[in-house]
C-alpha cells in the first residue's frame, strides 16, 4: 500500500518555470510512487484544473489538490511584491491550521518549496513525520563582486546577511524546525554549514530538473553565448558583459561577426547593464537584451546556443540543468550553487579571486570555447549525459521518494517503545 504524503507547496503551476514549475513537476512525478494530497495557493487553481482537463491522471494514481490563502483582512498590507516575504511566512503558519481543521489523513508531511535556511517550517505542529526542503542557502556575495552594482546593493546584501545570521543564532522556531524534522533536504552542501542538523537527517538534492526537450539542437554558425535570469546583482550579469566584451574585442573582425551575447530576463538592473554594454563598446549586433518569454520560445534560444554563461553567486541556479538538457556547456563560478550542478566534464568553472581577475578568467574560458570546437563538442556531449543521469524530473522524484521511505522508518527508540 502506498504511503499518503501531504505536501505544502506555496507555488505550483504547470505552465510556469522556476519555483512554480519545480513545485508542479516534483508533485506530479511523486504521484507515480505515492498517494499525494497537495496544498497550494488559490491563484494556482485555474492553471492546475486546466491542465487536468486536458491531461487526466493515469489509472491508479492519486493526486488531490486543496487550496488555501490567508483571509483578506489579515493581509490588507500586501500589494503585489510588497510584503510578499511576510505573506509567505504567514501562509506557511496558516496552512497548518487549515490542515488541522480539514483533518486530512496522511503518513508524512513535506514542506516542499519557497524554503530558505533562515525561515522556519511549521509542519512540526502536525505531530507527524515531516520532510523539509529542498532548503536553499547562498553565501554572502564577496564585496568586490557586488560593489560594481553600487553601494546601495552592497548595503542591502549586508543587511540581508545580518538578518539571516540573527535567525540562525537566535530564532527558536528555526531551532525547533531543524530538531523535529525527520529529514532535511539541502539544495547544496553549504546548507548544513549554517543549520544545526544531525548528520542522519541530512540529504542533498538539487531541486532543479527539466523535461527532456522536444526541440532539437539548431544549427547556428554564430558563437551564441546565452545568459538567463533576473537582472539583479546576485546573478553577476555585469561579469557576463565585461568578460564577453573583453573576449569580443580580442578577436579579428571576421571572428567578431560570428559572436553574440543574449541576456534574457528582466529586473531593476537592466538599465545599468544596458549602459554597461555601451561603456564596453559592444556593437548592437553583438549583444541583445530579451524580455521573459514562454518556455517554447526559450527552448529555441537554448537549442541555438554554444555556451550557457551563468556567473551567479546564488546557492541554486535552476536554469543550469535546463542548459544541460539541451547539451549546452556551462560557464560559471566554482561555487556552492551552479558550480555543484556541474563538473569539469560538462562545464568550465572559475574560482573566486578578485573581480578583475574573474573577468579575465571568464574571458579566457570564452576564447577557448570559441576556438576549440572539439573541446566544446565534448563538453556538450557530457552535459547531455549528466542531465539524463541526474536532472530529469523522474530521477528527482525517485530521489525524494527514497527520502520519504527513510523518514517513514521508525527510529529504534520508537520501535522498542
Summarize the helices and strands and which ones pair or pack.
Elements lengths: L3 E5 L9 H13 L4 E6 L4 H10 L8 E5 L16 H19 L5 E4 L18 E6 L7 H4 L4 H20 L1 H9 L2 E4 L4 H4 L7 E3 L18 E6 L8 H13 L3 H4 L2 E6 L5 H10 L7 E4 L4 H9 L3 E4 L8 H7 L4 E4 L4 H4 L5 E4 L4 H17 L1 H18 L2 H16 L3 H4 L2
Parallel strand pairs: 1-2, 1-4, 2-3, 4-5, 5-6, 6-7, 8-9, 8-11, 9-10, 11-12, 12-13
Helix pairs in contact: 1-16, 8-14, 12-15
Give a structural overview.
- This protein has helices at residues 18-30, 45-54, 84-102, 143-146, 151-170, 172-180, 191-194, 237-249, 253-256, 270-279, 295-303, 319-325, 338-341, 355-371, 373-390, 393-408, 412-415, and strands at 4-8, 35-40, 63-67, 108-111, 130-135, 183-186, 202-204, 223-228, 259-264, 287-290, 307-310, 330-333, 347-350.
- With 417 residues, the protein is α/β, with parallel strands linked by helices.
- The chain folds into 2 domains: 4-207 and 393-415, Glycogen Phosphorylase B (Rossmann fold, 3-Layer(aba) Sandwich); 223-390, Rossmann fold, CATH 3.40.50.2000.
- The strands form 2 sheets. Strands 3-2-1-4-5-6-7 form a 7-stranded parallel beta sheet, covered by helices on one side.
- Helix 7 (191-194) links the parallel strand 6 (183-186) and strand 7.
- It starts with a strand and ends with a helix.
- The model is unreliable at 412-417 (pLDDT under 50).
Amino acid at each position: 500500500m502506498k504511503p499518503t504524503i501531504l505536501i505544502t507547496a506555496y507555488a505550483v503551476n504547470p505552465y510556469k518555470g522556476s519555483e512554480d514549475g519545480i513545485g508542479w513537476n516534483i508533485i506530479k512525478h511523486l504521484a507515480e510512487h505515492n498517494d499525494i494530497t497537495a496544498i497550494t495557493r488559490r491563484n494556482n487553481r485555474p492553471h492546475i484544473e486546466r491542465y487536468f482537463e486536458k491531461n487526466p491522471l493515469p489509472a491508479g494514481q492519486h493526486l488531490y489538490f486543496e487550496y488555501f490563502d490567508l483571509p483578506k483582512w489579515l493581509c490588507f498590507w500586501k500589494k503585489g511584491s510588497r510584503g510578499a516575504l511576510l505573506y509567505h511566512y504567514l501562509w506557511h503558519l496558516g496552512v497548518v491550521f487549515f490542515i488541522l481543521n480539514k483533518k486530512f489523513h496522511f503518513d508524512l508531511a513535506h514542506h516542499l518549496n519557497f524554503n530558505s535556511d533562515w525561515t522556519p517550517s511549521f509542519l512540526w505542529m502536525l505531530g507527524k513525520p515531516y520532510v523539509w526542503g529542498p532548503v536553499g542557502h547562498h553565501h554572502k556575495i564577496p564585496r568586490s563582486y557586488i560593489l560594481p552594482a553600487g553601494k546601495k546593493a552592497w548595503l542591502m546584501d549586508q543587511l540581508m546577511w545580518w538578518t539571516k545570521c540573527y535567525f540562525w543564532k537566535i530564532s527558536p522556531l528555526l531551532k525547533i524546525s531543524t530538531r523535529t524534522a525527520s529529514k532535511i533536504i539541502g539544495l547544496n552542501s553549504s546548507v548544513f554549514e549554517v543549520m544545526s542538523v544531525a548528520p542522519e537527517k541530512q540529504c542533498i538534492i538539487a531541486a532543479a530538473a527539466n523535461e527532456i526537450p522536444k526541440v532539437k539542437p539548431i544549427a547556428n554558425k554564430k558563437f551564441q553565448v546565452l545568459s538567463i535570469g533576473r537582472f539583479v546583482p546576485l546573478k553577476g550579469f555585469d561579469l557576463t558583459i565585461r568578460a564577453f566584451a573583453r573576449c569580443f574585442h580580442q578577436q579579428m573582425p571576421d571572428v567578431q561577426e560570428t559572436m553574440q551575447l543574449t541576456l534574457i530576463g528582466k529586473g531593476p538592473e537592466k538599465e545599468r547593464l544596458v549602459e554597461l554594454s555601451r561603456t564596453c563598446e559592444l556593437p548592437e549586433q553583438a549583444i541583445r537584451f530579451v524580455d521573459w518569454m514562454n518556455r517554447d520560445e526559450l527552448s529555441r534560444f537554448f537549442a541555438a546556443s554554444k555556451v550557457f554563461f551563468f556567473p551567479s553567486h546564488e546557492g541554486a541556479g535552476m536554469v543550469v540543468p535546463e542548459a544541460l538538457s539541451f547539451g549546452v556547456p556551462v560557464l560559471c563560478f566554482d561555487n556552492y550553487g551552479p558550480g555543484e550542478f556541474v563538473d569539469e566534464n560538462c562545464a568550465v568553472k572559475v574560482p573566486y579571486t578578485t573581480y578583475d581577475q574573474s573577468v579575465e578568467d571568464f574571458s579566457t574560458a570564452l576564447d577557448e570555447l570559441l576556438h576549440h570546437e572539439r573541446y566544446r563538442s565534448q563538453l556538450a556531449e557530457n552535459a547531455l549525459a549528466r542531465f539524463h543521469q541526474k536532472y530529469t524530473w523522474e530521477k528527482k522524484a525517485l530521489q525524494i521518494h527514497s527520502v520519504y521511505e527513510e523518514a517513514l522508518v521508525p527510529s529504534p527508540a520508537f520501535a522498542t517503545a
